Amino acid sequence: MGMDPSKITTFDNETYATSTTAPEFSVTWQYPPGSTAAPVHAFPNAQVNSSDIPIKLQSLKEINLDLHWTYGIGTKDVASTNMQTLTNNSVETNVAIDMFLDSDKTKSQSSSDAQYEVMVWLATIGSSAQPIGLENGAVSTQVVNNSTFNLYTGENSLNQTVLTWVAANATEIFSGDIAPLLTKLSAMNTTFPTSSTYLGYLSFGSEAFSSNVNVTFSVPKLSIDVQS
C-alpha cells in the first residue's frame, strides 16, 4: 500500500506564518520491503523554495533548524515516538534532512543531476534503514547542538556521491545550525563538496523503506532558515 492522498495535510502558501516556517503536516504509509537496489519507496517531505538557494558553501553562514517530528503506529498523529513499538512492528524508515549539491548552479537544484547528495539523519528506525557506506564505517564525527553525528559515504544507483550524517541517538526535537556539517565536508576530502560547490536543494522528511502496518509520520513544527 502506498501513501493515501487523503492522509496528506496540505495548506495554501498564504497560511505560512513566515518565509522560513511551514505549516504542520503528516502522512500515513505502509509498504512491503523493496529491492536491495531501490529499498526506498517514497520520501514524504517539505522542500525549501527560497531565493536563498542555490548558494555557494563559501557564502553559507547558517542553516538554522527548529523542528519537531513524531512517528506512530496507525493513522493518527502521536505526541511522542515509541521506538520499541515501531521496531516490534517491523517499521523501517528514517527522519532526515536531504540536500543536493553540485559545482554547476543549475544541476545543484536537481535531485537526479546533482553530483552530491548530503543527508542528515535525525533518526534511524529499524535494521534495514541504513546509510550508504555503513559497512565501511564512519569517516568523521561532528557534534551539533549537543547531538553527535557520524559520517558515512558511498555511491548510489545514480552514481552520486552520498554523504550521510547519522545521529547517534534519535533526535525528535532539534533546534540548531547544521551548516557546520556542510562546511566540514569542504575541509575533509578533495572528492567531497568544496567551498565553491552550490547547495541547490534542501528538504526535510522521511524515507519510507517498509512497514507491516500503517505508520504515521507527523511534523507539528518545522522552520528552516538559510543565512548567507
UniProtKB/TrEMBL annotation:
GO terms of molecular function: cellulase activity
Top-level lineage group: Eukaryota
Keywords: Carbohydrate metabolism, Glycosidase, Hydrolase, Polysaccharide degradation
KW Hydrolase (keyword) present: yes
GO biological process per UniProt: polysaccharide catabolic process
Pfam families found in the cross-reference section: Glyco_hydro_12
Keyword Hydrolase: yes
Family: Belongs to the glycosyl hydrolase 12 (cellulase H) family.
Name by which UniProt lists this protein: Glycoside hydrolase family 12 protein
